[in-house]
Amino acid sequence: MSYSLGILLCVGLLHQTARAVSMDKLADNKICGDAGCSHVLSVATALDDFTGPDCRFINIKMGQMVYVYSKLIPEEGAGVFWSGSVYSERYVHQMGIIGYFPATMVKETQKFTQDEVRIPTTNMDFYCE
Fold first, then answer.
1. Reported pTM
2. Which of 17, 24, 98, 119 is 20 to 30 A removed from 55 (C-alpha atoms)?
3. What is the mean pLDDT of residues 10-35?
């Protein structure tokens, strides 16, 4: 019986990871508030609506509050993207989802730290499920 359970568990895990996709990196480095990018750098307000082109991005609505966790350091000629999460009573289904958005779509309203850490990005930073 435990053998069958183990096989079912493995099949379930393989099914879940088969949907995950490694996407192109948007930048090689990022700025965070700590080495794990787990502390919020700032809070920003969305200046306009943004619909992400793929699963690396989050959708934001004008006026929505966005918690910023990291800021990608762009290569020359590339766009500037930040990662964050939206929080709003109207968009509860998006709460806790972290993704990228153009920095030009938001205005920082409050910074939480002046101590910023520059760290390299990894492929996991751009992993889609």
1. 0.75
2. 119
3. 69
Q: Which fold has domain 23-128?
A: SH3 type barrels. (2.30.30)
- Rounded CA gap, 43 and 84, in Å? 9
Task: Provide the residue ranges of all domains of the chain, joining segments of one domain with +.
Answer: 23-128
| CA 4/CA 47 separation, integer angstroms | 53
Q: CA–CA separation, 48 vs 93, rounded Å?
A: 19
> 3-class SS at 3?
helix
User: Tokens 């568990």 sit at which residue?
Assistant: 9
The whole-angstrom separation of Cα 126 and Cα 52 is 13
Q: What is the DSSP string of 46-91?
A: ESS-B--SSTTB--B-TT-EEEEEEEEEPPTTPPPEEEEEEE-GGG
